[in-house]
Amino acid sequence: MVDLKTLTGAVGELDEERVLEILNGFVSTNPSEEEAQKVVAACQSGMAIVGDLYEKGEYFVGDLIFAGELLTNAINTLKPVLGNTGSAGVGTIVLGTVAGDLHDIGKNIFKSMSEAAGFTVADLGIDQPASAFVEKVKELKPAVVGMSGVLTLALEAMKETVDALKEAGIRDSVKVIIGGNPVTKEACVQIGADAFTTNAAEGVKICQGWVK
């Protein structure tokens, strides 16, 4: 079993070489699913450190992007052992950047961190109309719908998407979280979302609270 504190520290320091060295060594020991989940949790703790350092101004957006990529690589490395038992994830998230907005950095970071937390994420991509969210929710029946946007106009598109979910009669079957630079508590209320965040790590914690 790997030293989880060392792994958490390496993720927090964005030391990808060290992280992958630890994980490759771990996978080669043919660990159990339980052990693998502990390693994922350690990586997640490392991402929380990254989030904290970003909030303190010690890390920047570029570091968050790199952290997301690091986490994706880490999870990909662990996938062979994470799938040993075929256990189901904690829940499904339908995720996308709303219509009129082409930004995907925040969405991708949230996606990586959600997957690390055990969620199955259906990523619709960028510039997605309300109908795309509605159709995917009907298809997958997820626990959570996550909408991302950086531009101010994204707020209107988020509201249109929630309204479309209501019109389709499926709004009450999912929790809705919105994220991105323009979201605020007031916008969250106006849009009709259940939660908002500008921090991917916080967003994942909110989603985890919903599926407990």
UniProtKB/TrEMBL annotation:
Coiled coil: none
SMART domains from the UniProt entry: B12-binding_2 (SM01018)
Domain annotation B12-binding N-terminal: ranges: 1-90
EC code: 2.1.1.13
GO MF assignments: cobalamin binding; metal ion binding; methionine synthase activity
SUPFAM superfamilies membership: Cobalamin (vitamin B12)-binding domain, Methionine synthase domain
Enzyme class: transferase
GO cellular component: cytosol
Keywords noted in UniProt: Cobalt, Metal-binding, Methyltransferase, Transferase
Ranges for domain B12-binding: 90-212
GO BP annotations listed: homocysteine metabolic process; methylation; tetrahydrofolate metabolic process
Name of the protein in its database record: Methionine synthase
Gene, per the UniProt record: metH_16
